């Protein structure tokens, strides 16, 4: 080849072609989407995120969650995502317009998280209600009231409409089955978890001895519950799956929830500290080897709270006009949710 | 052909012209010594660091509790640290070292303005160091291969502009009108990278595009970095080393022209196939799938060209380390591209997407193709810089076989495990955890392959240090893998 000019022009031309074709033109096409709303301006979706959620997204990126978790639901004709109950419709560009960083992901060593917030139990929303006004006025140290207040304001404005489909899912008793954990672990939580599954906060009431944080842990320690795994499983059997409290426990000790999980623990986002006056409302409750020493407690630091707020905000359940939603989720029994 | 006449070193030219050319070449090589060795030495350090990080990442994937309580050693930070050390520390620096040497040789002029390169190497190292430190500290941006926080990205870009401006300057000093094939690729790489890097940074971090387009820009960047930066340097190097070592011109110049332009045109349009069925307009993905299939044209032309050049000279693979590594790399390029086409087809992507297959694919490109070609070029170039020959043929052989078996095992494990993982994931009657549990034994196998690669890299690093210290052999004959005299190879040549 002779002459630099054609070479230069060719090198620039081919690349300009690709740059315009794959980034500039798509930006004209879908780069300036607006939220969808009704004609009278109500029912706006999606909505901007709170500051905690945005910080949580940075924590998510900083710790590389996106290398194992995707955040996109593919159409039902293309993949089994919807059958797996990872969403009831495929993801669309409009779902992401307010996310400062979009983590579509390229790997699923863990589940898809596009709707992880929507899959949390609906009771989560009302959690401050029943325990406070009802059963345990002494402030049962149960996890529900402790975490709900911090997650509620963090959720995007569209949050009050998560479908109740996942609320009654047989998650707590399905977990030990999936985990294939030791029989005593699978046996002990199942009877207790199976019956109160629809009402998540209920099982905590019997255990709620007011005052000491270690009391419920002791109460939970079933005969088989001395090892960390089985006691963790039994304890988690009382947590509504994908609730904020569940997320904290899962981040801190993934194998206390599912022994086969290969997710690393993120306990560096938590702090084990001495209880000064009264136990913190945020404290996590563990038994077995995960439990803190007497007089100590495990509390999430701010990054962990933001991360969970971010996870709880991931919710694409709102219908979009340009995407057909799948049939009601209740049609078929949900598959085991896995870890 | 007599064994001693095997043209393993230089193409035969007339004796008188040969002498002046030899002296010229020696002068040019001497002028590249400091900058190229600086790039190579840095690259070797990063290679060793990246290898240990890789082993750590690989083990943690099936032993998640290993050191997981320490924030900067958590898997999600060490993994991007490993990738960026390999991509920017090892591959880019070694690639630039080779490219600089090739530019000087092919422009047939002594290297001018070495300070530009020395400063470039220094800033590049600083950028990678800060970037990797930032990732471990918790500043990662979360976009593949663009994880470096902004302060590191700016330094990297400045460093790069120093090197690129040097490359353009060198073209002005060149002698002779003819621009060799290798120079097309190198000039392309040097000009594409800054545009690509700047576009990626601007569209993701400075004036971020909206929503899912960020993911599109991210994939566009990652694929073009693989093809237009590493791919271009790797192919350009192979186009130089293969004809050079066997002493024979490239089979077809026209084929090379077709190969280059179709490569530039089609491979730059790939990337979106990795987002198949994602939340994007379907045309973007379809266009990328079509472009990926069309990359078979450059693959076929380049492969045919190399094959026809090598025709009749394959027995030389027994002797020349450079040739052996380079030909392995060139063949891997074909495999890499074919695997790329296969996993981009929608019917296959259904089972390949979101699995370890994508890891296998990037290792095919970055290691089996690019890194092996660069290893080959280093075996050729380093003796010419330090004036010594490689000391131990046995170490080179060990390096080659450990690398070959290591990367081969890794690709097989990840491909097989990945497709099983995908098949289980696509079967909604199985719990999701089945898909990750299926792949765990393969991940352990991958860790084993990592041990082989660690051995390979440590051997190479040791050998390289010997060369730097001037402990190589003083000889006029390059180090052959097998003694030339002892072989009855005449009949095959």
Please provide a written account of the structure.
The complex is a heterodimer of chains A (339) and B (493). Chain A has 339 residues and is mainly alpha-helical. Chain A has one domain (51-331). Chain A contains 13 helices and 2 strands. Chain A has a two-stranded antiparallel sheet. In chain A, helix 2 (51-62) packs across helix 13 (302-313). The radius of gyration of chain A is 23 Å and the shape is globular. The model of chain A is unreliable at 124-236 and 329-339 (pLDDT under 50). The N and C termini of chain B lie close together (7 Å). Among the domains of chain B are: 24-176, Up-down Bundle (Four Helix Bundle (Hemerythrin (Met), subunit A)); 336-480, no CATH class. Chain B is globular and about 75 Å long. Chain B is built from 14 helices and no strands. At the A-B interface, helix 1 and helix 2 of A face helix 1, helix 2, helix 5, helix 6 and helix 7 of B.
Chain-wise SSE layout:
The complex is a heterodimer of chains A (339) and B (493).
Chain A: H1 4-30, H2 51-62, H3 123-126, H4 129-133, H5 143-151, H6 171-179, H7 183-187, H8 189-194, H9 204-207, H10 214-220, H11 228-236, H12 244-252, E1 270-274, E2 296-300, H13 302-313
Antiparallel strand pairs in A: 1-2
Chain B: H1 15-62, H2 75-107, H3 114-137, H4 150-173, H5 181-206, H6 213-246, H7 253-267, H8 282-294, H9 296-310, H10 321-344, H11 346-352, H12 357-386, H13 393-425, H14 432-468
Helix pairs in contact in B: 1-2, 1-3, 1-12, 1-14, 2-3, 2-4, 2-6, 2-12, 3-4, 4-5, 5-6, 5-7, 6-9, 6-10, 6-12, 7-9, 9-10, 10-12, 12-13, 13-14
């Amino acid at each position: 080849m002779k002459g630099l000019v054609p070479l230069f022009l060719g090198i620039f031309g081919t690349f300009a072609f690709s740059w315009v074709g794959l980034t500039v033109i798509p930006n004209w096409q879908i780069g300036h989407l607006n939220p969808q709303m009704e004609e009278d301006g109500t029912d706006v979706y999606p909505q901007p995120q709170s500051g905690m959620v945005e910080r949580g997204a940075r924590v998510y990126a900083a710790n590389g969650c996106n290398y194992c978790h995707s955040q996109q639901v593919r159409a039902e004709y293309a993949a089994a995502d919807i059958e797996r109950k990872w969403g009831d419709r495929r993801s669309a560009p409009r779902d992401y317009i307010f996310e400062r960083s979009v983590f579509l992901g390229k790997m699923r060593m863990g589940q898809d998280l596009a709707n992880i917030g929507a899959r949390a139990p609906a009771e989560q929303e009302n959690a401050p209600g029943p325990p406070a006004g009802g059963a345990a006025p002494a402030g049962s140290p149960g996890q529900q009231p402790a975490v709900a207040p911090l997650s509620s304001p963090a959720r995007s404005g569209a949050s009050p409409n998560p479908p109740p489909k996942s609320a009654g899912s047989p998650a707590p008793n399905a977990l030990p089955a999936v985990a294939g954990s030791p029989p005593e672990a699978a046996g002990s939580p199942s009877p207790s978890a199976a019956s109160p599954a629809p009402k998540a906060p209920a099982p905590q009431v019997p255990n709620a001895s007011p005052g000491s944080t270690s009391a419920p842990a002791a109460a939970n320690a079933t005969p088989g519950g001395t090892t960390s795994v089985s006691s963790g499983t039994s304890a988690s059997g009382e947590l509504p799956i994908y609730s904020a409290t569940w997320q904290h426990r899962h981040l801190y000790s993934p194998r206390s929830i599912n022994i086969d999980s290969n997710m690393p623990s993120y306990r560096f986002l938590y702090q084990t500290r001495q209880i000064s006056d009264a136990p913190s409302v945020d404290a996590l409750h563990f038994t077995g080897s995960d439990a803190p020493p007497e007089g100590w407690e495990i509390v999430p630091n701010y990054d962990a709270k933001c991360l969970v707020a971010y996870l709880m905000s991931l919710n694409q359940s709102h219908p979009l006009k340009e995407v057909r939603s799948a049939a009601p989720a209740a049609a078929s029994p949900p598959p085991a949710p896995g870890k | 052909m007599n064994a001693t006449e095997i043209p393993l070193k230089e193409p035969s030219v007339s004796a008188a012209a040969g002498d002046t050319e030899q002296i010229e070449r020696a002068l040019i090589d001497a002028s590249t010594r400091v900058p190229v060795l600086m790039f190579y030495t840095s690259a070797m350090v990063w290679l060793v660091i990246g290898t240990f990080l890789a082993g750590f990442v690989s083990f943690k994937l099936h032993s998640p509790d290993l050191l997981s309580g320490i924030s900067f050693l958590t898997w999600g930070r060490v993994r991007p640290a490993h990738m960026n050390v390999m991509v920017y520390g090892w591959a880019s620096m070694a690639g630039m070292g080779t490219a600089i040497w090739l530019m000087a040789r092919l422009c047939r002029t002594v290297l001018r303005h070495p300070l530009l390169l020395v400063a470039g190497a220094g800033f590049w190292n600083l950028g990678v160091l800060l970037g990797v430190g930032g990732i471990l500290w918790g500043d990662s941006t979360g976009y593949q291969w663009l994880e470096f926080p902004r302060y590191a990205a700016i330094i990297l870009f400045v460093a790069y502009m120093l090197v690129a401006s040097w490359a353009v300057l060198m073209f002005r000093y060149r002698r002779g009108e003819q621009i060799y094939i290798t120079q097309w690729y190198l000039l392309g790489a040097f000009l594409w990278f800054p545009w690509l890097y700047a576009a990626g940074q601007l569209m993701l971090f400075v004036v971020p595009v909206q929503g899912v387009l960020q993911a599109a820009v991210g994939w566009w960047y990652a694929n073009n970095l693989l093809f237009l930066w590493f791919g271009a340097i790797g192919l350009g190097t192979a186009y130089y080393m293969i004809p050079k070592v066997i002493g024979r011109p490239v089979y077809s110049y026209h084929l090379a022209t077709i190969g280059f332009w179709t490569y530039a045109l089609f491979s730059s349009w790939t990337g979106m196939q990795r987002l198949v069925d994602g939340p994007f307009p379907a045309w973007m993905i379809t266009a990328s799938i079509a472009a990926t299939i069309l990359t078979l044209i450059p693959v076929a032309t380049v492969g045919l060209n190399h094959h026809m050049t090598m025709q009749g000279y394959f027995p030389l693979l027994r002797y020349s380390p450079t040739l052996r590594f380079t030909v392995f790399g060139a063949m891997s390029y074909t495999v890499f591209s074919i695997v790329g086409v296969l996993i981009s087809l929608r019917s296959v992507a259904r089972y390949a997407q979101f699995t370890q297959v994508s890891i296998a694919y990037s290792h095919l490109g970055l290691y089996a193709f690019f890194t092996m070609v660069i290893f080959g070029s280093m075996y050729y170039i380093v003796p010419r810089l330090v004036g010594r020959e490689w000391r131990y043929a046995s170490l080179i052989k060990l390096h080659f076989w450990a690398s070959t078996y290591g990367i081969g095992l890794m690709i097989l494990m990840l491909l097989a495990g990945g497709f099983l993982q995908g098949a289980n994931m696509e079967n909604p009657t199985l719990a999701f955890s089945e898909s990750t549990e299926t792949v765990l034994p393969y991940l352990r196998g991958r860790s084993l392959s990592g041990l082989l690669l660690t051995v390979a890299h440590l051997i190479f690093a040791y050998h390289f240090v010997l060369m730097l210290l001037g402990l190589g052999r003083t000889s006029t004959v390059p180090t052959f893998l097998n003694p030339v005299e002892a072989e009855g190879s005449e009949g095959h040549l």
